[in-house]
Structures are given as C-alpha cells and as structure tokens.
Design a protein that fits this description.
Chain A is an alpha/beta fold and about 375 residues long. Chain A folds into 2 domains: about 130 residues, NAD(P)-binding Rossmann-like Domain (Rossmann fold), CATH 3.40.50.720; about 210 residues, 2-Layer Sandwich (Dihydrodipicolinate Reductase, domain 2), CATH 3.30.360. Chain A contains 9 helices and 17 strands. In chain A, strand 14 and strand 15 form a beta hairpin. Chain A is globular and about 75 Å long. Chains in contact: A-B, A-C, A-D, B-C, B-D, C-D. Chains A and D meet through helix 1, helix 2 and helix 3 of A and helix 1, helix 2 and helix 3 of D.
Chain lengths: ~375, ~375, ~375, ~375
C-alpha cells in the first residue's frame, strides 16, 4: 500500500476547528466516553508562569506539571542559588534573560512573558515574595499554608488587592478530580445529609534540621503543613464555616523534630447545619492519607485522599435489597496542572478561583483556634 | 470396587486419640496450613447455657452460634412470652422442663444442665437478671453494655462476687479473629509505637418506638450501644487506660428518635504512653464500621471492624524500597461462638476471661466522662 | 427496674406464627433489609441425614454444616473405622444404634430416622455405596465427582431410578450465594450477552500417597477434583451444553504426585449461542480460585469463587459517563448447609434439585471429551 | 522576614552536579524512599522525535508523553491533513519548517533536529513509512502491530538493517512499571515455577466503518490490535518461545463490525519448560484487561494490565501460617514516555531495546499459527 496515498484512504482524520482537533468515538456506547484530545492552547497564547524557589516541590512536581498544562507555560525561574538556576533553566529551556535571583527578582516587572508568579518558598517568606510579586504587577499563586499566621495572611490579601492583582492559594487537593467528585456527591443530597467528615493525614518526618521543623520558618508543625488539607477540605465538603473547635496536641518528648513544632494534632469541628469533622494530622506516623464522609444514606471513602497520586474512591449505599460498595473509576490528573490551568483561565475569563486568598485566611483563623483549644483544653467558639 | 472392602483401601483414615480425630496435611508446604477438624467435646461434656430473653439478637445470632460451639451447648431458654418460648424450644430441641418464664426463672437454681446464664435482655434489666442468676448459683455472661450506669455496673460485679460466680461481658468484637490479630500486630512493636486509633461505628436507626430509643431502658443512645465497641477496643489496643477525654454530641432537632437519647458522639481519648483515640458513633448514618490504627512505621485497617461478619484487614508498611499494603487473610469465625466457648473453658481451666466485669465497669466510667465532657465542652480528666 | 415486670415493658417481642418468630425492622429504610431469624424447623420435623465416611471433608465441613441446617439434621454416621465412629458419634450426639460400619451399613434400611445418605467416600466407591443406600430405600446425596467415568455415573442414576429414590450431586458451588447472584446477573441480559467465562481453580497438593493421586480411586487428577467446578459452573452460567472442546494437559516429569493422575488441565468450551469458556485447573500451583465473566456491557468477577468461604463479587459497567466497579455485598452462607437444606425441601415439596444426577453425568461426558481432546490435540465435538 | 535574605537561611538548597539537582531525604527511614527530581536533559541535548500521523493515539497519548520525557523531545510532525498539521504544530510549538506532509516526508532526511521517526499510521502503512524513514537516515519507532503479516514484518526489519538504522516496536506494556515488576517476580523463582499465564484483553468497538475493521488496513481484528498484548507479554513472562498453540475464533453473525475481521480469539500457548498461557481477546465485550500469573507458591495479578493507566498489582503467598495478598504500590509512569526515553538512551549508550523488531516478527509468526490453529481446529506446532 503506497504511503503517499495514505491521505486518500478511508481513515477518519478527525475535525479541525478553531485550532482544536476532535475525533468521533471509536468505542461502543456501552463504554465510558473517551473524550477528546487535550488540545493545548498554542504555546505563545498560554499564560506565563514564573516559579519562585527551586526546592523539591518545584523540581519534582510543579515544573513537570507545567509541561502538561493546556493554558499555562513556564516562562521564568527565580532562585537564590545561581548554579541551580542555571541547571534548571537548561533542563526546562528557560533562557538566561528569564532567570532571576532573589536579589534582582523585582526586575520581573519588565518581563512581558510572566503573568503569574508561583511563590513556593518556605512559609515565612511567602508574605515578602507576594508583596514583591504584586508590586511588580504580577498575579500570584501562593503555596499553602499561605502564611505563618492570620496577620500575615491578611497582609498578603491586602497587598494583592492594593496592587489590583489576582491571588490564588495552591490548595491542590481542591482540584483533585476524585476529591471534586466526592464533594459533589456529598453535597448533592443523594445520600442524605452529611453526618461526619473523618480526615486523616499523617507522615513520618526524618531530618530534624529541615526548615519544616523550625517554627520561625514554618509557622507550626504538622498542622499548617499536612493537617491543613484535612481542614480546608472539611470546610469545602461542609460548604459552611465551623462554629466551634476542640483539639488535642501530642508530641513525643525528647525528639528533636518536635523542639519547636508540634507532632500530632487531633481536632474536631462542628458545623452549623449538623456535620462534624474529626481530623488528625501528624509528623511521626507512617504515611496515611484518608478521607471518609459518613452520610445518612451512604458513605464515601477516598484512599490516598491528600496525596499527589493514587486516589481511589468508593461509595457505599443500599441498592435494591443489597449493600453495594462502588469504586468510581476516575482518571487521575495532575493537581498542580489543574490548579495552574484554572488560574490561567481565571485571568482570561474571570471565572473565579476554587481557592482564593479568603479561603487561606479562614484556614489560618481556624488553625489559631485549634492551637488555642488545645492549650486551654476546651471548645473554642468561631462565631 | 467393593464398598465393603473400603476400609482395607490405602485411604488415610486419620488418627483417633482422646476422642479427637486428626489428619495429616494434604496440601503442599507452600500453602497456608489447613489445621484440623474442630472436634467438639462430646455433647454431654459441654457447658450448658441458658439464654435469657428471645429477641432478635438471641434468635439471629446467639442460638445459631451455640450450635457451632465446641465446649458449650444450649440447655435452657428464658422468656417473658410463652408462645415464643414454646416455638423456640421446639426449633432448638430444648424440652419443656428447661423452659423458663421471667416469673419462674429462679427455679433454674435446680437445673443441673445449666452452668451459665446468658443475660441478653434490654440494658436496664441486666442488673436484676444478673442478681437472680447469680443468686441461683449460675455463672453469668452479660450482654453489653453491662448496665445503664457506673453504679449498676458496680452492683453487677458485686452480686457475682458475693455469690462466688464468674462474670463475663459479651464484648464479641474482642473475640473476633481479625480484631485479635490487629491488636497483636499493633502491640508487637513491629510497626513502631501506636500513634492513633481511629474508630468509627455508625448505623441508621428506624422505628423511634423501639426500646433502644428509650433512655430509661437503654441508658443512652448510640454511645452505649454501638459506640461502646469503639471505646472498649480502643482501650484494648492501647493496652492502658485513658487519662483524659473530650467529646462532642450532636443530635438533629425534631427527630423523635432522639427525644430521650443522643444521636452522634465524637470523642477523643488520650492515653498515657502517647496514643490518641478518635472515635465516632451515631444512630442516623448509613452503616459504617471501621478501625484504622496509625503507627510510626505502618498502619492497620479493619473494614467492617465491629460487625458480625465481613472483616477485612490490611496492613501497610515499607518493604524494601516499596510501599506494601497486605491483606491478611483470616478465616471468619462466629464471635458469639468464640466468646461462649471461652467462657466454658474458663470454668473448666480457670484461664481468665478476655472481657471481665472490670472491663465493663471501666467502659461505663469512661462513658460517664464522655457525657460530662460533651456537656461542659472541655477535657475531662480520668486519672 | 424489676425483671419480673420485664414482659410488661414496651419491648417489641415479635410475632409468633406457625412456629416461627418474626420481628419488625429496627433499621431505617436506607439500610439493607436485615431479614428475619432463621427459625429452623422443630428438630424432629427435620429430614435425617446419615453421613457416610468420616474423612476430612465430613469432619471439617459437612458435620458442622448440618448443625446450621433449618430443614435437615444429622441422625446417623457410617465409617469403616470403629474408633472414629465412636469418637465422632459422641462429639455430635449420635447414639450407638445409629452408628454403622461399612459392613453392616445395609441395616440402615430399618433406621426410620434416616431419609438421606450423604455418600462422601473416595470417588471409586460412590457407585457401590449409592447402590446400597438406594437399595436400603434411602435418598442419596453423592459427593462430586459423582463417579470415576461416564458408565459409572450412568449406573448411579439408574440405581436410584430403579429404587425410586432421589439423587442429588453435592455441587456446593452451585448453591453458593455469590455464585448464584453472578449467574443471575450474567443470564439477566442487563449486561448484554455473555462473551467469555474464564474459570481458574488450582491448588498445590502435598503427600503423593493420598488417594486423590491414585487413578483407580480418584478417576483422574485435578480435573475431576477441582477442575470440575470450573466445568459445571461454566455450563450453569452458559445455560446450555458445550458443542466442542479443546484441551491441553501438562504434568511435570519426575514428580510422584503425577505418576497416575494429571497435573494441569487447560480446556476451552464453545457454547452454541456464542459464549466461550476458558478453564484451567491444576494440582501443582498455589491456591487460586477465580471466575471472571466477560459480557458485552460489563464484567463480573468472583474472587475465591470455588472456595468454601471468602467469596467477593465485583461487577463493572458504565454508569453515566463513568466506569463503576461495584462490590455487591452478600452474606456468606455455608454451601453444604444450603445444599442439604435444599435436598430436604425437595423431598417435602418436590421442588426439583439444583444439581441433579443428570448434571453430574453430563459433566462426566465433557470430562471424557476433555481427556480425548488433549490426547488427540484437536477439537472434540460434543454434539 | 526579608526575602532578599532567603538564600542565607538554613534551608537545604540541594546539590547541583553535572547539571542535575538532588536533595537529601526529608522522610524517615520507615517510609518508601522518595527518590530524586527527574532532572531532564537540557532541552537541546535531547533526542528529537518526528511523530508520523496525527490520529487519536498521537494526540491523546504520544504528544503529551513527549512533554514528560527526560531524554527525548518533539521536533517534527508528519500528517496527510494540512489543517491538522498546522493546528497541532501551533499547540506543541513545532515551527513550520519541521511540519511534513506525507508527500514531502522524504525531505526529513535533511532535518538535523530529527533522529527518530515514530510511525503511528494504520498497520498496513507501517512498512512503507518505515522504509522511507530508514531511507531518510532516521531511526524508527514503529507502532504495534509492526505489520500486517510475517512477510511485511520481515521486510521492515531488513529495511532498517540495510539502512543501518535502529528499529524498535512500540510495545508500551513491556515498559509499564507494574508489568516489569510482575515479570521480575515471576521469573525470580521466589514463588516457584510459573504454571499459568492467564491474559485477558477485551474491548467493545463502536463504528464498524473505522479502519480497524477493514482487514486490508488492519491485517486482522482484535488479535493484532489488543490481543497482541496478551501474546507478547505471555512470551515476555515465560522468557522462552511457545512450542505449540491451539485457538478458537468466534464472531457474531450479522454484525458489520466483523465482516472482514474477527471478534473474539481464545488461544493457548505451551512453553517448553512447562508454563501454559491461556489468552482471550475480543472486540465485542466491555473493557476488561487482566493478567493473572499462577505459580507453584503464589500468584500475581495485574488489574488493567494492558491499559494506559490504572494498573494495580497484587501478589499472594503464604507468610507464616497465613495467606497474605499484598498490593505492591508502584507509581504509575507514562508508558509512551518510558519507551521513547529508552530509545533515546539506546541511541546514545547502545543499551539494547526492550522491544526489538525481532520481538515483533516473532509475535507475527505466532499470530499466523493462531489463525491456522483456529481454522484447522487442532494444535499447531511452532518448533
């Protein structure tokens, strides 16, 4: 068969319209629809991101995720370490004029390829970098926790508002497809009212010298780091604000990891319309990340709920005269990709963010109440 | 082949010794050992049980379980409903002289076939029936919760001690094979220290007129009924007594089921050597029964943890450079059978009970503290 | 609270009617219905079983199962080993006049407490014992495989017909609740037509001296023992008879276990209306028992499909725009209990058997074709 | 905290060496090692790929996968549809001088940015395009099935050899991490010898007009398309070549999808050292993709074995006196990325391919034997 005749063959070449390619379905109707190719925006139409600080999170997750975005692309890097800046620039094809040190970062104001600065640095530095990015006229995606305390979170919001720039908090789990479906089902009423949100997120930290164990830099221990996911997701599921909180904090004695930050935090939130959230986070336990939502007529479980990958969702309910526990098969998608793409779309279309600065501020308020409740051993009111 | 020659054939007929039959293994060494036949004691050597009250639990679970016991057998029935007594007596082959009404129950003192009375009646009646059974010279297996408050639990213990009779509380989950293995692994140290015991036990009650929704008869709502399993198992796993407790009780308004008893109880226990237990029970949620134990180097999960059947255990840990989540396959065994057989062996051999009256009393003490902590919205000390 | 007043309390005592006790539902409508107590027939109304031969299967499975029956009970034992007969008689309360040796077994004709003889002895002895049981006027439940070849299977059927006695084959998997539901769904059409039945049943045998490795006694190796379940269930699922079969038999050289019987058998059945069954059985592999049914619009999987316990069923299909894999939670029930109870009901009500002698005979015919196909290395027609 | 001082803080900035960045572990030793960032090669050092034909597979899988490669990058596109070429070129940033039609494809000889042509077009066109790519001096990655018959497969190999160019077949499942681990365990001997490889790969096709249902273009139906994975993986697991094959082909009548190609193929392979493979593929069944390997001392199961994503691996074996079924948690990685990166490394380092043209040719030989065995209804020898 002549290959030059290939385009005369009865092969479906798909449709091209508005720069996108689509194809008819190849599978029978009995199968899950396969959807269409991703069709990324033309490279130069995508929103440009500068990634600020080149630690593990940036190199392992954020930079690879940008390569999967449809609406966003990497256009600049910012780091305090020159050799790293050069190496990573080469790896990702960012040319020298888009590489910034912390000192000359403010020059980014003149870089037309950068619309958003993704601030990834240690928690205590967020406020300073957000101020500088906003002052440079850039929108800001700020890693979680957005700050080290309520006052700093408030200052971050005000800085962006003053500069007229958009602010989003990188609560990646809020973009995770299984999580979104879990929240949708829980709020749909199809399983009755939500009774309990049980969220666990624990991990086992090694080196006590890492910055996450320095209260000055981290603002706290397991709570603002991994426990924050339990909190922010519990609020997202309940769809309302907690009215009271109790908490218990326990840290092993004589463990250098916990000289300045806490190990394990158990906290209970009471929501106005009825739901209760029981959450536990910790820094001295084997990796465990689980969400269970108990409702009147069923339950929803998410394994590896707050992890980068590996989510698995089961929903239990009565079907006919039998109990049925269904795994809902959802394709995993990179959470960082989704959040960066959403920010890009927000800039273009004005479709509000799933994780605003207000969400981040409210989480800091609740975390302060958690610390207070643990200290005073009594329920703290949040109303 | 002549069937009369069958016993001359090269068929392994097993070993008979001391009334028990055993066989050599038929499977290769690569397979899980199959063990030996159950070899029940000769019928007339088994310890005789009277089952007191013929409600759902007795008919659905306890009487069928007795038929599976090796060391125990059903020898008498006690009920306040004559037709039921006659019908069930016929079903299980208990002859008329071993059928007792509540009025003439004390005659059981003269029934030599009864060694143990299994008191199954509503909670508020436990104390009275235990007193009468002990006074009649019988040992007592008392359903959980053993009483409606601490004082009554104490009285039950004292009545049995005064009569010189043994007392056991029917905490069936403490006998469940998966649960026993979970406790064994947790306490073995092979996964490091226990950090968190997360126990959920919820169900959705129907008819508000049933006795479990009458505080006078039940002594409480979900807590003493199904939440008690979370509590008693948390104590069993920790292997020590909680030093403090906080709690939150929430009940929907305008729901007749919760006119006199509580719906949902979340409580947190702090144990002296470090572990924390976060437990939730409720009466207005779809069936959910789950135990997760988080340790420093792994986690253990038990699905359907507190149910009659359906337990499934997974253990996660690092193996080599990979995370491994292992299902440990354990044959289910009837929990009621195991607890009744253990009591029978206790009488014979003096090997102490897995669930003494002291355990039941301590659970009542903690439940009182839970109610208090919820009322006062602060941590209650148990030391 | 006075315990003598207990029957005046507002406790629902249930309904007693026709010797059965029933209760109102206690759970909400959102929960799987709990059903009613088992309400066994009065002991002396139950159909009496004699169990013939006291090997592992009888002691580990059949005798305990009889204790769980509603319509059947153990009334006699038959064994070639006097000590075993005495020991087991004591264990199960069978008095001396109902204990039979192989020699005096024919006396059972005069035992009015025995209606059914359950023939459990090695395969080659089935025919002889069935003939004697039928001649004694007893109905027969015959272990699988019913015989060692087609001729003997035919003879067994004729002997029972001649004596006017009922014959059932102990195909326990045909009674297993998950299996019944899998067959029901597969045949309902709700997932389209059946395309493939993939049945695996392998185990690893130890001692080469056991009778199952002696062709004279067993009639074959893995095929008539454990592979028979794949075959009989494939036929049950298809609901029609195979029209052709191909097969491959492989046995390791120099392994005494396979001196006279085969190890592994792979066979493929073609059914007239379209389905294909691919089955594998073996005697030198780690325990594996699995059934997968592939249909046009979904699939059904049964883990531990042919085992005594541990069945787990999942059903996959498209639901909305998602793939859903549902575990259907079904309470396990003892398969031997179900088959013995069904036989008892058959005798009383004439409701035909789920596993007749005709089923057993047809399986022997297909097994002969499997052996032939393997020998000749070509497809053998069964029409 | 001043952000300009950020690089003076006690934050571990990692190591930079040879253009790569590495970090110390942050987690405790009890946790699975997290590894290091991916550190892609500098963009311009990566091997350049031209992707030939822009159908679903290229747009949905291959082009996104290239964006995740460490050693490869997209440098050119080839298509018979000009609008599609322009649209996709813009989406992926391929400039006009690297966009080729089928007519002017031979110009690629002069494109220094292209080292490898990935031939993705319909099966019948592979040979022609491979010849042209090799003649243009490019290495070739050829989609599976590599050809439509043995002769064409042979011609492809010879064309590449004559041109002195490397040839690899895109057997993505051979690169899938779970699959590699399954093969490793199976061959390691730790579970004894392999007894059975049971591989199922079925899907439900829609539109009968698509080219895969045209024998001229596809060379066959389900077998060369999705059944080929069962075959090539069975050979990879066995680690030797099959000596005999039997097969059954069934296709529904009056179904236009099967006018020229087959629906369902069941085939059985016998390997010299003992293992048997039973494989089923089909085009009229709900998506099912499963691999079960049965060994003497354990079994290995891979769910979604041949899919793009969703692999889940369980391994069963005896551990102590218990059966243990372990999920081995392995991070999913894009199979296309892995295969393209491997080819890039092959070019640089000469480390041979996991899927050579010889593998593809041997699979075509076995497929011809499968078709013959089905036609003749007997075992076909392959030795």
């Amino acid at each position: 068969m002549s290959t030059t005749d290939a385009d005369q063959m009865p092969i479906n070449v798909g449709q091209v319209e508005g720069g996108s390619v689509t194809f008819p379905a190849w599978a029978a109707d009995t199968e899950k629809p396969k959807g269409q190719p991703r069709n990324p925006d033309p490279v130069h139409d995508r929103i440009g991101f500068a990634v600020l600080s080149l630690g593990r999170l940036s190199l392992e997750e954020i930079l690879p995720a940008l390569a999967q975005c449809k609406h966003a692309r990497l256009t600049a890097l910012v780091s305090g370490t020159p050799e790293k800046l050069a190496a990573v620039g080469a790896q990702y094809g960012v040319s020298a004029e888009h590489l910034y040190s912390y000192d000359d970062f403010d020059r980014i104001a003149d870089d037309p390829d950068v619309q958003i600065v993704y601030v990834v640095a240690p928690n205590a530095l967020h406020e300073g970098f957000v101020r500088r990015a906003a002052a440079a006229g850039k929108h800001v995606l700020c890693e979680k926790p957005m700050a080290v305390d309520v006052a700093s979170a408030q200052a971050i919001i005000e800085a962006c508002e003053a500069a007229g720039r958009l602010l989003m908090i990188a609560y990646r789990s809020r973009f995770q497809p299984h999580m979104r479906e879990a929240i949708r089902i829980a709020q749909s009423g199809e399983l009755g009212q939500i009774k309990l949100i049980n969220a666990l997120n624990l991990q086992n930290q090694g080196d006590p010298a890492q910055w996450r164990h320095d209260h000055t830099l981290a603002g706290g221990g397991s709570l603002p780091d991994v426990g924050l996911y339990c909190l922010t997701i519990a609020r997202a599921i309940a769809g309302e604000e907690p009215m009271g909180v109790s908490a218990l904090i326990t840290s092993p004695a004589d463990d250098r990891r916990f000289d300045s930050v806490e190990d394990q935090v158990s906290f209970t939130l009471r929501f106005p319309s009825g739901p209760v959230a029981t959450c536990v986070t910790g820094y001295d336990a084997h990796k465990l990340s689980r969400l269970i939502i108990s409702l009147q007529h069923g339950w929803i479980e998410l394994e590896n709920a707050f992890d980068y990958v590996g989510q698995r969702m089961r929903v239990a309910r009565r079907v006919g005269d039998r109990e049925q526990i269904s795994e809902i098969v959802i394709k995993e998608e990179n959470q960082f990709m989704l959040e960066m793409d959403e920010f890009a779309v927000w800039i273009r279309d004005g479709s509000g963010p799933s994780a605003s600065g207000r969400e981040g501020l409210q989480d800091h308020r609740v975390m302060e109440a958690i610390y207070k409740a643990a200290r005073e051993q009594k329920t703290v009111s949040l109303t």
